[in-house]
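Hey team,

Filing this mostly as a record. A colleague (T.K.) asked me to run one chain through the structure pipeline before their review meeting, and I want the input and output archived in the tracker in case anyone asks later how it was produced. No errors, nothing strange. Just documentation.

Input sequence:
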Amino acid sequence: MLRSRDWVLALPVTDDGRLVMVRQYRFGTRDLSTEAPGGVMEAGEDPRVTAARETEEETGFAGGRARLLGTCAPNPAIQANRCHFVLLEGVRPTGRRAPDEHEEIQVLAVAPKAALAAALADAAQHSLALLALYRLRDERPDLFS
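Output structure:
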């Protein structure tokens, strides 16, 4: 069994309806992956706080209203942790990024509909990032029209 703290995937949306995403290298697939910003929660931390922190660290976007969209068990056969999906509405660029030491991240602001189409076309898509996009579509279908 693999033990890990819970983690968060954030869905930061700007006032003009763009979804802020990150593109980074993933060692498991040996390729670049476009996905929601996110990270591991501190002990006892609220997922909304983690989402806001990780979004600003990775993308330089902050602010807005945070709302939990749901939670899943990433792989209950071998993992005991949870992944939380948090919508951050009304984020704005701050210019304050603080990626981890070995993170090389490209920041993108895209139409959510285009993000979902690209994710569906990628056979190596991060499955939780895809689920996060579906959660966003269910919560804010207006962004996908």
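Quick notes for T.K.: Helices lie at 47-59, 112-121, 127-139. The chain has a mean pLDDT of 92.
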